[in-house]
Amino acid sequence: MHVRAPRSSGCYVDLDLEEGCLRRRSRRGSKGVELPSDAAGDALEDLGCQDEDSAGSVLAAFLWWLLLGWIVHLYSIYDAAVWKPEAWKTEASEQLKNAILAFFSNLLGGKMATPAYDRLTALDSSFLLLESAHAPLHVASTLTFDAAALRTADGGIDADAVRARLASELHRIPRYRQKIAWIPLTQRPVWIDDDRFNIDYHVRHTSLPRPGNAHQLKRLSARIMEQSLDQSRPLWEMWVVEGLEGGDRFALISKVHHCMIDGISGVDLLNTMLSPTPDADLKPEIQRFIPRRVPTGFELWRDEMLRRIRLPFEVVRDVRQFVAEAADARLEFMSRMRSVAAALGTSLRVASATPFNHKIGPHRRFDWLEMSLDDIKQIRRGLGGSINDVVLTVVTGAVQRFLERRNLNPGQIDFRVMTPVSVRSPDQRGKLGNRVSAWFLDLPIGEPDPREQLRKIRAISLELKESKQAVAASMLTDMAEYGSSTLLALGARNVTRMLPFNLVVTNVPGPQVPIYMLGSRMLEMFPLVPLVDNMGLGIALMSYSGKLFWGFNADYDLLPDLGAFVRATRDSFDELLKLSGLPPTLSGEGAAGGAEAGSSREGGGIRPPVGLEPQLHLVKQS
């Protein structure tokens, strides 16, 4: 091929491209210099070469071949539709989708690159969009361990061993070495590898001042948990805390952004990081981390455009799958639509005003409570219902007592709780991200009889199961995948203005056998659920090794008497236990309602009235 390349002096250089080489010829016709074929494209580009053939001819040839390809492809689709109707439903439509995607992929810059990122779901993204400076949305927990296996010669804790142990497991948790990036011109986040990952930033070491009691640990937990995670780094932290009273224990305070995990995936993560056996490998092997290439902004935008082009085909696929799986598609569709309408109606009902439901500030109080899981099961056997029904009845009694203490009439308040419901399938276990839906329940706080409270809650739970409210809520979150990112952002930012519930109560089943960190047995695990605007109290529960651990996260200013609520929870539980035929238990009370609920400010909470001073119960466990 003969190419004429202009030069800055106004003259030109003739180039011959033949037999895999680029030959430069001067005007005098000398042989010149040969360039290998792989350098030919670069040389032509550097010289600004233009083919002597007109650009119009090239464009015409491209459009001709494109038109011919579409004619052939459309004929194949017609042939499949006429002669192979079954193939039309599957193969031909799939071919059409692939052809359209290939066309737009080439139009937008070539084939899609090998993914070097992971896209967040709409539900995961909502936790990023909901977050604000005074309402960080990370889930957290305070764990205590027996310190014997990790005690150093000077009486401290070997934090370097803990750090090395976590580093050795990070290859099994890729998300822990990824950070957030945003697709240009959209509000959609993706996960990309952090090429500057440093585990020393994420695993930190601190100590309590003497005497290192439970109240000080609660205060430290509140202070750490109220601080937002740095979105320019992987969204997790873990604090190794030594100096606990007695010297035979240490604590781990862990926080992970809610866009990474829900309750069930948090338990799976815990099982990955800890061990079911006390065998301690103090020098674990750390695998080398090689971050993947970070995509450019254009690549992210291009792939997002292609994803949106795919959406209609995915909708058709989902509808076909629904029709194929449903025994009666019409009946199932109408049932789900009724559930969606009911869920929307519930979500549009604004919750009643209570002391919990006002604008929150940036500071927190954190308190906890410990119960015997066998006692919970005894209540279930004696009075009926599930473990979750018993938990909600305990919360009902606690709210009732607390409102009366604030001189409010519970019978005049419609009090609604939101309880997350896992929709994680068995094949999704061990994977991070959120697979949750929600139930909205009106607690019978105006009912004075605890047995009647339990009966009503049990009836509501059965009704919710039959109404498929959790399925409807899950459908609404799935539909957000097909919506605009702008609408998702607006919805996330405005959801707290008309909050449809007063309180979040989440109950997650944890491991029922002892687990270990480098030979140190975990003794307690107190979970934390984050707060949002107009919700000043959140209750999280997790069962572990025969015990049920409660974590109470509260706004510092809205609930200065958080300890009173914790004591009301204990009193409500003891009353149910007595009604079931067993006396109130003193075992496993933990540090319920400690001298002052842990808070993020110096000085702790307010002093309760005389006669209501809480008792501090420390339970030694081996």
Keywords:
single chain; disordered N terminus; 6-stranded mixed sheet; 622 residues; Chloramphenicol Acetyltransferase; 7-stranded mixed sheet; alpha+beta
Fraction of residues in β-strands? 15-25%
What is the terminal-to-terminal distance?
A: 84 Å
Low-confidence stretches: 1-55, 72-92, 108-113, 586-596, 601-622
Supply Rg: 31 Å
* The CATH top-level class label of the largest domain: Alpha Beta
Total number of helices: 16
- Broad shape: globular
Mean pLDDT: 75
Count of beta strands: 21
CATH architectural category of the largest domain? 2-Layer Sandwich
And the CATH topology of the largest domain?
Chloramphenicol Acetyltransferase
- What kind of sheet is the major sheet? 7 strands, mixed
Strand order of the largest sheet: 15-14-16-19-20-13-21
Secondary structure category: alpha+beta
Q: What percent of residues adopt helix (DSSP H or I)?
A: 25-40%
The domain count comes to 4
In summary, what is this structure?
The chain is an alpha+beta fold.
Any chance you could write out the topology, listing elements then pairs?
Blueprint: E1 2-6, E2 12-18, E3 21-25, E4 34-36, H1 37-47, E5 50-51, H2 55-83, H3 85-107, E6 117-119, H4 122-130, E7 138-146, H5 159-169, E8 178-182, E9 189-193, H6 199-202, E10 203-207, H7 214-225, E11 236-242, E12 249-257, H8 263-273, H9 297-325, H10 329-347, E13 364-372, H11 373-383, H12 387-405, E14 415-422, E15 436-443, H13 450-467, H14 469-479, H15 485-494, E16 503-509, E17 516-517, E18 520-528, E19 537-544, E20 547-555, H16 562-579, E21 598-599
Parallel strand pairs: 10-11, 14-16, 16-19
Antiparallel strand pairs: 1-2, 1-5, 2-3, 3-4, 6-9, 7-12, 7-18, 8-9, 11-12, 13-20, 13-21, 14-15, 17-18, 19-20
Helix pairs in contact: 2-3, 3-9, 4-15, 10-14, 11-12, 12-13, 12-16
